[in-house]
Write a structure and sequence with these properties.
Number of strands: 2
Strand order of the largest sheet: 1-2
Keywords: DNA-binding
Number of helices: 9
Strand content: under 5%
Largest sheet: 2 strands, antiparallel
Protein name: HTH tetR-type domain-containing protein
CATH class of the largest domain: Mainly Alpha
Radius of gyration: 20 Å
Shape: globular
Number of domains: 2
InterPro entries: Homeodomain-like_sf, HTH-type_TetR-like_transc_reg, HTH_TetR, Tet_transcr_reg_TetR-rel_C_sf
Helix content: 55-70%
Structural class: mainly alpha
CATH topology of the largest domain: Tetracycline Repressor, domain 2
Pfam families: TetR_N
Length: about 210
């Protein structure tokens, strides 16, 4: 393969994503990525310039995947009535959980950042988190202004509560009575968590009717 080979570039992206998600940016070296991909150490530099640039491209890809998922989920969504608002809010909850289940590297990458991983890469929250919050806020603000969401509701913390819960569950699951860890690979546990997430948001946001 030569520099610029699309297959090599994609291989590096996939391998690096897995390593960054598992070990964190700080604990993953360029040499590890090259070795895991079965490539010469120079390959990473030829394709991306360095580990930092590779990490930035991975986070950009994750952002675009998440944004596309949310935009598709909210196509045709309405908040003109309290009932439509409830449907839209629950759709957001479901789609965010489903996205994290389909892309398990996503919550792992961000949880590493919560633990100050790649702390020298300071712009990611402004570049990728703020736009997502703004996007969802723009969808729900008319409903809040119209009173379709309960007046005491802090939508910012409601949103973050969903993120915290989903990331934590996807990464750690829950303990059963014997102390064994159960998680996303158990459909009963997953649906129980999904139901809890819906009830939590429904009650916190004081939405009309009963949660799905």
């Amino acid at each position: 393969m030569t520099s610029g080979d699309g297959g090599r570039r994609e291989l590096i992206l996939q391998v690096a994503t897995r390593l960054f998600a598992a070990l964190g940016y700080d604990s993953t070296s360029a040499a590890q990525i090259a070795e895991a991909a079965g490539l010469d150490p120079e390959a990473l530099g030829e394709e991306f310039g360095g580990k930092r640039e590779l990490y930035l491209e991975i986070m950009e890809r994750e952002y675009r995947a998440e944004r596309g998922f949310l935009e598709k989920a909210l196509e045709g969504a309405s908040v003109e009535t309290p009932e439509q608002t409830a449907v839209t809010v629950h759709r957001i909850v479901d789609q965010y959980l489903d996205f994290c289940l389909a892309h398990p590297e996503f919550p792992s990458l961000w949880m590493h950042r919560w633990l100050s991983d790649a702390s020298d890469v300071t712009e990611l929250e402004r570049r990728y988190i703020r736009p997502q919050i703004t996007f969802i806020s723009n969808v729900l603000t008319p409903a809040v202004d119209a009173g379709h969401v309960g007046a005491p509701t802090d939508m910012k913390y409601t949103f973050w509560s969903v993120v915290w819960c989903v990331h934590g569950f996807c990464q750690s699951g829950v303990l059963d009575r014997a102390g064994d860890r159960q998680g996303v690979d158990d459909p009963v546990v997953l649906e129980r968590f999904r139901g809890y997430l819906h009830r939590m948001v429904h009650r916190v946001a004081l939405l009309p009717g009963s949660p799905p």
